[in-house]
Amino acid sequence: MLHGRVARRTRRALATALLLSAVALAVTDGAVAEPVGTPTVVATRTVPSGETLESADLRVVRFPEDLRPDGAVEDPAKLVGGTVSGSVASGETITTTRLLSHASARAGTVTVPIRLADAGVAQLLEPGTEVDVITLGNDSEQGRELADDVTVLTVADDPADTTSPAGGDGGPLVLLGVSADTATRLAAAALHQPVTVTLS
Known about the structure:
Elements: H1 2-33, E1 38-43, E2 58-63, E3 110-115, H2 119-122, E4 130-135, E5 145-156, E6 173-178, H3 180-192, E7 195-199
Antiparallel strand pairs: 1-2, 3-6, 4-5, 4-7, 5-6
């Protein structure tokens, strides 16, 4: 009978030891599985300059803290609705410095990107500058004003050929804040004829 009690106590002690071991292993496994790095928002696709970000354009990955660029954010909601000032590659970290300031555009305006016939003029512009947009015309047609008193939101440098005319490839991209109806007219005109700006 004594032998039986000893055996039961031994079994209970063994069961307790196994339970404690299982708990310890669970805790250890949880620690190993803990994600490493800081949540960081990156682009899910290539986003063209001047385009507004949507939730589908963004995802969260983890970066070592010392590799995260300045201005990186953890929450995609902070970037949704922002307009990128330059093209963003798929997988690239989207920092706050890559977005146009919402405060720089007037209420009720939209963003329209154009390239100027003379890339040198674009280099004279900076965010907040008020400009008039005009066509250059040709020998048989005088230039005409397409928009007046519009705000330059930013000028995005383009490494491509800066000698191409407006509507073509290359040259700095000038992002303007204009009304919706003006944006349609301006974008259509800039695709088919050279345009430039004058300071208001």
